[in-house]
Design a protein that fits this description.
By secondary structure, this protein is of the alpha/beta class. The protein contains 14 helices and 14 strands. The chain folds into three domains: 5-76, PDZ domain (Pdz3 Domain); 105-282, pyruvate-formate lyase- activating enzyme; 295-419, Rossmann fold (3-Layer(aba) Sandwich).
Length: 421
């Protein structure tokens, strides 16, 4: 896809140059860009020549002078301007492959593009890693990357990813080590495949790469009612075993679900280091609880309010603690209410997969003036749930008001809300 402008930052150089949404940046200094990596690199200059195709088809050549590191203020529709590199694997645990029809189109996209890993933190398997990719990464000093490792056993990785190129994982990771390219590693734990002794092997191999590995996140496989592969979900025994194995290694963290399943307390913040893999649910509950402790609460609010936190089962215990403390505020009543996933099946416990109808069902019989939900339930920059319905649909079917919390690791926005009543 071409380098199409989505918007420009107010007060930026791009606004001054009258670059608008829909314009296409054809080149910078006569160089056609492949992605945002090229864009960022080419913009690090005092003098630039932009070739811009306007929405009416007219082509303008703009010469400009700016500070060396000054950004132009252009927001693009996509981070890559050619074709996103697709995933060629058929992983036994792939969540995309098991999704039913009728969800948002973007949920069926499977990418495995090192550029998106660098720019946006998406995970890559390196099964389509080419020599020219390595040369570009080395030349431009790119990193860190986010790598879905799962196992370092070549034969097992081929079996799990269903791709012969999956066997090259340690060769590729050793290349990262040799060229001082840092990366975060992810392991989707599938009981009977890469747990136990296989997990020990994987963590030992990753430890041999030393500080090239910034962090290792272990997450449980998601087993829904739509899955065709016969996979076993992580239970209490597997969770306990996994936590014990992971504790032997530095920079290895298990996602919150393992602690909940094992009935163990969520670790303190030191366990998570720099919280490098929050998107995988590694440390989300700890971050939420610590942030809540630092909040300043009013002794009372000006008028009575009944609020319900519509939460995932994974975050329920934490939100129950939050709710109980908030209920000490005069005129405020709150309730933590977990949303059961009838759509995906009872094994799915994360907020990002909650559908509009499941949310509506969970609110039946709940006496509340306000429903508080995390923004992760909605499509980014929209009010759409993953099943295609929007927030207005939920409001209409519940008759309640909603507050969407943008920072999913904090309830500070709710505290601000009640403080301003």
């Amino acid at each position: 896809m071409p380098a199409i402008v989505s918007s420009v930052v107010a007060g930026s150089i791009a606004e001054e140059l009258e670059i608008q949404a829909g314009d296409e940046i054809l080149s910078i200094d006569e160089t056609k860009m492949l992605d945002m990596i090229d864009y960022n690199f080419l913009c690090k200059s005092d003098f630039l020549t932009l070739e811009v195709k306007k929405t009416d088809g007219e082509i303008e050549v703009i010469e400009l002078e700016k500070d060396f590191d000054e950004d132009l203020g252009i927001v693009f529709e996509s981070a890559v301007f050619d074709k996103v590199r697709p995933c060629l694997n058929k992983c036994i645990f792939c969540f995309v492959d098991q999704q039913p029809k009728g969800l948002r189109d973007t949920l069926y996209i499977k990418d495995d593009d090192y550029r998106l890993s660098y720019l946006q933190g998406t995970y890559i398997t390196l099964t389509n890693f080419k020599d020219e990719d390595k040369e570009r990464i080395k030349k431009m000093h790119l990193g860190p990357f986010y790598v879905s490792v799962h196992t370092t056993n070549p034969d097992l990785r081929v079996k799990m990813l269903k791709n012969p190129n999956a066997a090259k994982i340690m060769d590729n990771l050793k290349w990262f080590r040799k060229n001082k390219i840092p990366f975060h590693a992810q392991i989707v734990l599938c009981p009977g495949y890469n747990d136990g002794e296989e997990l020990e092997r994987t963590l030992s191999d990753l430890a041999s790469l030393k500080n090239t590995v910034l962090s290792v996140a272990i997450v449980p496989v998601g087993v829904t009612q739509f899955r065709k592969e016969e996979l076993i979900q992580v239970d209490k025994k597997v969770a306990e075993q996994t936590l014990d194995i992971a504790s032997k290694y530095k920079r290895v963290c298990c996602s919150d679900e393992f602690f909940l399943l094992a009935g163990r307390e969520i670790p303190d913040s030191k366990y998570y280091g720099a919280f490098g893999q929050l998107e995988d649910g590694v440390g989300a509950i700890r971050l939420l609880l610590d942030d809540f402790k630092s909040c300043k609460f009013p002794d009372k609010i000006s008028k009575p309010l009944k609020a319900v936190f519509a939460t995932s089962y994974a975050a329920y215990d934490a939100m129950k603690i939050v709710s109980e403390k908030l209920n000490k505020i005069k005129n405020l009543q709150t309730l933590a209410n977990p949303v059961k996933s009838k759509y995906w099946g009872q094994n799915i416990t994360v907020a990002g997969l909650i559908t509009s109808d499941d949310l509506i069902d969970s609110l039946k019989g709940i006496d509340a003036d306000l429903v508080v939900i995390p923004s992760i339930m909605l499509k980014p920059y929209s009010e759409d749930f993953l099943d295609g319905n929007n927030l207005d649909y939920v409001k209409k079917n519940t008759g309640k008001e909603f507050l969407v919390i943008k920072d999913i690791y904090s309830v500070r926005e709710f505290v601000d809300y009640i403080s301003n009543l």
